[in-house]
C-alpha cells in the first residue's frame, strides 16, 4: 500500500503481492486516516481482507486510528523500513510502474479507468494477467474478445509459480551484481555507528 501525490492530487495505491492486481483510489486532498480507512473498507469488501498489508511509515498509514481498524478487521499492517525499501522490491517495482501509468494517463488526458483495466488484463511474468490470477478470468474491456477468452478458467498454478520464481531469481541476480562481500577484519576496539544513516 502506498500514497502517491501527482499534480496536487493524492492517490491510494494497493497491489496484491501474489497476483499484482491493483486498486487505485483518489483521496482528493483528504489525507486523514478516516478517509483512508473508508477507501480500504471499500476495497476489502470487494476482494476480502488481506492477512498482511505492507506500507511505508507515513503518519496516516500507522496512526492509532489505522491500528484500531486493523484489530477490528483482523489483519496486520507492517511498515517497511524507510532505509531498506528493497526488502519489498517486487511490490515496490509494481507500485513504481503504476505511478508511471497514472502520470502518463493524466498527461495524455486519457481515461484512467481504461488504463487500469488494460493493466489488469496484461500478463505478468509472461504467464497470466492479474485478473486471471485473482479471478480466474480475463476482464471484458474495449478490445475485441472471443467468448472462449472471456470464459472463466482456473490458472495452472505450477506454471505461474515457476514464472514467479524465475522473476525473483532474475531480480536477485541483477541486484547481486552491484553488491560486494565485505572484507573480514579483526575487531580490536569498539566500533561506533549511527542507528540511522546520516544521523551523525
Automatic annotation (TrEMBL):
Single GO MF annotation: nucleic acid binding
Single GO biological process annotation from the record: DNA integration
Listed InterPro entries: Integrase_cat-core, Retrovirus_Pol_polyprotein, RNaseH-like_sf, RNaseH_sf
SUPFAM superfamilies linked to this entry: Ribonuclease H-like (SSF53098)
Protein name per Swiss-Prot or TrEMBL: Integrase catalytic domain-containing protein
A Pfam family: rve
Gene3D superfamilies: Ribonuclease H-like superfamily/Ribonuclease H
Domain Integrase catalytic intervals: 1-160
Lineage, opening ranks: Eukaryota, Metazoa, Ecdysozoa, Arthropoda, Hexapoda
Amino acid at each position: 500500500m502506498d500514497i502517491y501525490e501527482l499534480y496536487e492530487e493524492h492517490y491510494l495505491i494497493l497491489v496484491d503481492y501474489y497476483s499484482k492486481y491493483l486498486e487505485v483510489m483518489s483521496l482528493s486532498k483528504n489525507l486523514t486516516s478516516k478517509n483512508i480507512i473508508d477507501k480500504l473498507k471499500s476495497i476489502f469488501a470487494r476482494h476480502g481482507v488481506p492477512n498482511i498489508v505492507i506500507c511505508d511509515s507515513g503518519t496516516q498509514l500507522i496512526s492509532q486510528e489505522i491500528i484500531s481498524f486493523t484489530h477490528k478487521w483482523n489483519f496486520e499492517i507492517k511498515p517497511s523500513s524507510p532505509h531498506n525499501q528493497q526488502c519489498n522490491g517486487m511490490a515496490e517495482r509494481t507500485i513504481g510502474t503504476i505511478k508511471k501509468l497514472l502520470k502518463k494517463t493524466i498527461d495524455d488526458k486519457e481515461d484512467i479507468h481504461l488504463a487500469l483495466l488494460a493493466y489488469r488484463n496484461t500478463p505478468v511474468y509472461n504467464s497470466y494477467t492479474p485478473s486471471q490470477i485473482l479471478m480466474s478470468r480475463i476482464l471484458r474491456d474495449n478490445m475485441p474478445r472471443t467468448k472462449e477468452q472471456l470464459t472463466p478458467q482456473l490458472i495452472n498454478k505450477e506454471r505461474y509459480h515457476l514464472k514467479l520464481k524465475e522473476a525473483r531469481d532474475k531480480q536477485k541476480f541483477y541486484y547481486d551484481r552491484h553488491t560486494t562481500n565485505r572484507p573480514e577484519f579483526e575487531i580490536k576496539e569498539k566500533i561506533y555507528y549511527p542507528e540511522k544513516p546520516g544521523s551523525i
